[in-house]
Specification:
By secondary structure, the protein is of the alpha/beta class. Strand 3, helix 4 and strand 4 form a beta-alpha-beta unit. Helix 10 crosses helix 11. The protein starts with 6 loop residues before the first helix and ends with a strand. The structure holds one RNA strand.
RNA sequence: GGAGGGGUACCCAAGCGGCCAACGGGGGCAGACUGUAAAUCUGCUGGCUUUUGCCUUCGUAGGUUCGAAUCCUACCCCCUCCA
């Protein structure tokens, strides 16, 4: 079967950070359907935005006719990858890794076609071949191929040993060997000769390539993706409030959409090239339109819509968009109908409170909805003019809300700052 | 095993008996300006209590003292060098 050219497109999109041998990779991909492998260590119950680029890259390979393989690190997650980490990690409990492996396995189906045919993606767990391995066979057959000098020269090892206050245990030091063994194993069992990973995976990938050359005498390849950072200097998807997860229970589709909508102008073009399925020419057109009228956030909207739809489905994304427009288009609260409020309730955080004759203290409601962290904080924020109720700014610190201030006798829309909203609903009884 | 250095709020980092809820920087949040941007300026950044205070916090547990993050004892953890 014939495959579509893909390597050039990845380069054009800026998705190739490093490649071991570009000509070799192109030749491999041109020769027919090739297995392509990405490893993910299940260290949490959900994937997050940072996992998206590797997965979407596999998706592109699959579209082009190649076969994606995702290796879940059921074994390696128990060790911990020192790459890109500045200090020794806390070891995860086996049960934790077990659960994380299963929930991540379920998430991957959204991005890859798992059909049981030759093009179907495969999801494997490296514990299946690492656990049966005995210590002595491992040291003789794998460890013997790793010269100490090369190990100590690895970036991930050097930074850890060279950093005051950090360190590196033998356990984490061995991580490299396990991942190299993964690649070697896949090469043998699946004929896989291309591994893709984040930029911090370069050392692990090349270690695998070396091992394959030594044990099997075969040439294997690797390419790394850029680390996706923002103009603010942070990793994409890492905020002060926490990680942007792909699981709707952890990061609501609304929060997910809003995060992308608020992407810095300087980043949005690059992110579209990484994540969007649009052609590069279409993305350039979007960028030009955006440059003319940046306040319209055309590019951000395109990015946010496309990714939210990919992760949470287009139906949910339409709801989330409607809520966003309702909250931010500056319309008066009285234009909202109770139907919109029901929609809001499903998208943004909020709380249900019982009706009381004496009404509610605003500071208590702000804390109850999670909009602010404490009553002291709520008071000072009210004084700073940061709090609105039903889109009207509140200036009285001791503000009490009686039933007649609730819309339709039931709802309040609280706002903290420009963009943090929460709802309050009175319980029917009482 | 030996010697030395160190553990302070989200992070870095001062403080080394009372004036310490703890200097400063970063980050974060908020206000002004805006585009739900960026940059800039301003304020806030343990909790409770509407300002008087009270409670909790400086690795852990005790102790000395009118009074401790600061002194003493034991323990835990980290780093560096030597073995």
């Amino acid at each position: 079967m014939s495959c579509l050219p893909i390597f050039g497109e990845l380069v054009e999109r800026g998705c190739v950070f490093q490649a071991t041998d570009e000509a070799g990779i192109e030749a491999l991909l041109a020769s027919g359907a090739a297995p392509v492998y990405v490893g993910i260590d299940p260290t949490a119950e959900s994937l997050h935005l940072g996992h998206l680029l590797p997965l979407l890259t596999l998706r592109r390979f699959q579209r082009a006719g190649h076969r994606p393989i995702v290796v879940l690190g059921g074994a390696t997650a128990l060790i911990g990858d020192p790459s890109g980490k500045f200090s020794e990690r806390v070891m995860l409990a086996p049960e934790t890794v077990e659960e994380a492996t299963e929930s991540i396995r379920r998430q991957i189906g959204r991005f890859l076609d798992l059909a049981p045919d030759p093009w179907g993606a495969r999801i494997l767990n490296n514990r299946d071949w690492i656990h049966p391995l005995g210590v002595i066979p491992f040291l003789r057959d794998v460890g013997k191929h790793f010269p100490m000098g090369a190990m100590l020269g690895k970036e991930s090892v050097r930074t850890r040993l060279g950093t005051e206050g950090s360190g590196l245990s033998f356990t984490e030091f061995s991580y490299l060997l396990l991942q190299a063994y993964d690649y070697d194993h896949l090469c043998q069992s699946e004929g896989c000769r291309l591994q893709v990973g984040g930029s911090d995976q370069w050392g692990n990938i090349t270690a695998g390539i070396d091992l394959i050359r030594r044990r099997q005498g075969l040439e294997a390849y690797g390419l790394t993706l850029p680390l996706v950072t923002t103009a603010a200097g942070t990793k994409l998807g890492k905020t002060e409030a926490g990680t942007v997860w792909l699981d709707a229970q952890r990061t609501s589709p609304y929060a997910f959409y809003q995060y992308l909508l608020q992407i810095d102008d300087r980043d949005v073009g690059r992110l579209l090239r990484y994540f969007s399925e649009r052609e590069c020419a279409a993305i350039r057109a979007l960028e030009e339109a955006h440059a003319l009228e940046p306040e319209k956030r055309t590019a951000q909207k395109a990015l946010a819509y496309e990714l939210t739809a990919l992760v949470h489905g287009s139906r949910e994304t339409d709801r989330v968009m409607r809520v966003s427009e309702t909250l931010f288009d500056g319309r008066s609260i009285s234009d909202l109908d109770s139907e919109s409020f029901r929609l809001l309730e499903s998208a943004i955080p909020g709380t249900v409170v019982p009706a009381t004759p004496e009404g509610w203290q605003l500071v208590d409601l702000l804390v109850a909805t999670g909009l602010v962290s404490s009553k002291s904080r709520a008071r000072s924020d009210i004084q700073a003019g940061a709090i609105s109720v039903n889109q009207l700014r509140v200036d009285a610190v001791g503000k009490r809300l009686a039933r007649d201030e609730f819309l339709w006798g039931r709802y309040l829309l609280l706002r903290h700052g420009r963009r943090h909203y929460a709802w309050v609903r009175l319980d029917r009884e009482g």
